[in-house]
Amino acid sequence: MTIHPVVLSGGSGTRLWPLSRAAYPKQLMPLVGERSLLQETIQRVSDAKQFAAPVLICNDEHRFLVAEQLRAMECKPKAIVLEPVGRNTGPAVAAAAVMAKPDSVLLILPSDHYIVDPAKFRAAIAMAAKAAEAGSLVTFGIKPSAPETGYGYIRRGEAGNTKGAFKVAAFVEKPDAAKAEAYLASNEYLWNSGMFVFRADRFLAELAKFEPAMLAAVKEAVAGAARDLDFIRLAKDSFARATSKSIDYAVMEKTKDAAVVPADMGWTDVGSWAALWDVAKKDSQGNALIGDVIAADVTNSYIRSESRLVTAVGLDNIVLIETVDAVMAVTRERAQDIRLIVDRLQKADRGERLAHRRVYRPWGSYETMDMDKGFQVKRLVVNPGARLSLQKHARRAEHWVVVRGTARVTRDRDVYDLHANQSTYIPLGAVHRLENPGKEILHLIEVQSGDYLGEDDIVRLEDNYGRV
Questions:
Q1: Stretch (H or E) spanning 460
Q2: Model confidence over 182-220: pLDDT tens digits?
Q3: Strands 267-268 and 114-115
Q4: pLDDT digits over 379-402, tens only?
């Protein structure tokens, strides 16, 4: 049987702030190993004997980052589907099911989970697929190792008709500490992993029973979808009318055909800094020290430096995260409460909630190095063969200095190349473009000057990435 993976890559970048941001959520980061969580997810379903090419469903803003990470691991997806607006997992999964052949067995995977034992993961999928072929809507229940209050639970019922699968007796919301202890002691409850296996037609039939308006909106969005470069863009107005509900609330908690396959695969959803400490490599003092960190008399802590030396003395059970524009400290017990800070950043309209100082674009990245009234200094990194849009600005001029590589500059009617230690000036209003014609990464310093320096002062006239 061929199983069709559907990988959900959304997220608001809040639970692992300040490392994750809305524009660069956790699944795109290498938090545990050398690969990002998204790449690890794709790697787990890369066996062509068991799995078809994956379908990725992601938010529009992340599309080029997702595509680049797939390209880097030489993965050719069946499709990258863009959600024009966030509507939770229910409509996203519905779109994948509508686009699939009716008898396709779909494997729904969040892109931000970490699994220690991929072999046990694949074995559990094989059992779930058999139950799905027989008509069940299957989820995976993780054998709990602790009275975790951050996960939903599943109460296992009687054995099903296929090996390894059980009927779901009940879905249970995140419990308080006392209930979590009772669930652990009873041996009847499993953590709800948020991964699912079912036939496309079975899921759509159940969705039609419980959420007909959602299904109608999604079908309309798929029918009106448009091809945009390597992406499939769902029709915005139609998709926006879909009810915003998770797959659990929309279908799994209502259907009579829910089944669960218990699994012990070393799973975590990396949903908090405490969860990341759980899976990180630790020293003899129970510390995970990542980056340029020096610690003395520190125990049971997660300390991560992204841009500079971080030091700590006499601390226990803390999380300390440093990025170039923010520092965050919290006890591991309160790691789930990072949302309190993110909410305050949102109310204050702080940019640190949305993006890092380094912003990724389909052609490379830029990073703000310095800024004050009337000027801004950026470092641009342009990938080999990549080019920025042909554009102009109404309120700023730019000076470009090449540090490394070759820059091909279009300025009005002139086209010329610059090399290391050479520079040029782009006057206010000039039609211009920057591209990298070489095989080496281009590093360039851009000095902007003018009375307004926002990113929305860009008029794109032509673009390789469909942004005009």
A1: strand 459-462
A2: 999 998 999 999 999 999 999 999 999 999 999 999 999
A3: antiparallel
A4: 999 999 999 999 999 999 999 999
- Tallying the residues shown for the chain, one arrives at 468
Q: Quote the pLDDT of residue 33.
A: 86
Dig out the tokens for 247 from the structure: 């797959």
Rounded to the nearest 10 degrees, how much is the dihedral formed by the CA atoms of 275, 278, 282, 285?
100
- Return the DSSP state at 272: S
Contact yes or no for 361/355 (Cβ under 8 A): no
Closest to 142 measured CA to CA, from 319, 333, 271: 271
Strands ordered across the beta sheet of 432-435: 414-418, 407-411, 432-435, 390-392, 459-462
Find the mean pLDDT for residues 54-71: 93
Q: Which two tokens mark 418?
A: 């610059």
Structure tokens at 180: 């979590």
Q: How far apart are CA 416 and CA 306, in angstroms?
A: 37
Amino acid at 363: W
Tokens standing for 48? 């062509």
Q: CB neighbours (10 Å) of residue 350?
A: 12
Domains in the chain: ranges and CATH: 3-268 (3.90.550.10), 273-342 (no CATH), 358-461 (2.60.120.10)
Identify the pLDDT of residue 226: 95
C-alpha 390/C-alpha 465 separation (Å) is 11
Q: Provide the whole-model pTM.
A: 0.90
CB within 8 Å of 39: residues ≥ 6 apart: 69, 70, 72, 73
H or E segment to which residue 288 belongs: strand 288-290
Q: Given strand 442-450, what is the order of strands in its sheet?
A: 358-361, 364-372, 375-382, 442-450, 396-404, 423-426
199-210 burial by CB neighbour count: b if 16+ within 10 A, else e?
bbebbbbbbeeb
